[in-house]
Amino acid sequence: MSRYTIGIAVIFMFLAACGDTSNKVQSQDQFCDAVSLNDYNQAEQLVNSMITELAPHYNPADFYSGYGAEIDSIKTWLEKKECVQEVTLSPGITKTTPPQKEYSISFTFNNSSFVKVMDLLLGEKLMVTGFHD
Q1: Reading across the β-sheet that carries 112-122, which strands appear in turn?
Q2: Per-residue CA distances from 23 to 19, 20, 38, 105, 109 (Å)
Q3: Nearest 10 degrees: CA dihedral of 40, 114, 111, 32?
């Protein structure tokens, strides 16, 4: 083998080793991946994407009754996530303008558990506005 051939082989091996790391092996659950990385902005975007697929049933006279099916669908979606152990809805509605509903979500990663609260804005359009302790 010539030095030229060996040199090219070494360069290709180096480039392959330094390849794009953005294609790391990820679980099939982007929501859990985001939470495990403490990327709650991404987790929020993923829930909001799911919400946009729901058919809205907005009733300005009664926010909870008007969104009951959607609130339950979001809870069910969260409960199906591999990292979610339990989802509890807060009783009633937080009286803000517009009102909010809170989801208490118990997560488990590598035998470690923690709880985050997810805020759902109940305006003309449902929207997750954040996660907090």
Answers
A1: 84-89, 100-109, 112-122, 126-132
A2: 9, 7, 19, 29, 22
A3: -20
CB atoms within 10 A of CB 112: 7
User: Pick from 76, 78, 56, 53: which is nearest to 67 by CA?
Assistant: 56
Between the two ends of the chain, the Cα-to-Cα distance in Å is 63
Label the pairing between strands 100-109 and 112-122: antiparallel
Q: 40-65 burial, b for 16+ CB within 10 Å, e for fewer?
A: beebbebbeeebeeeeeeeeeeebee
Q: Render 60-128 in DSSP notation, one character per residue.
A: TT-HHHHHHHHHHHHHHHHHTSTTEEEEEEPSS-B-SSS-EEEEEEEEEETTEEEEEEEEEEESSSEEE
pLDDT in tens, 6-46: 544 444 444 444 443 333 334 569 999 999 999 999 999 99
Contacts of 47 (CB under 8 A, 6+ apart): 31, 74, 77, 78, 118, 128
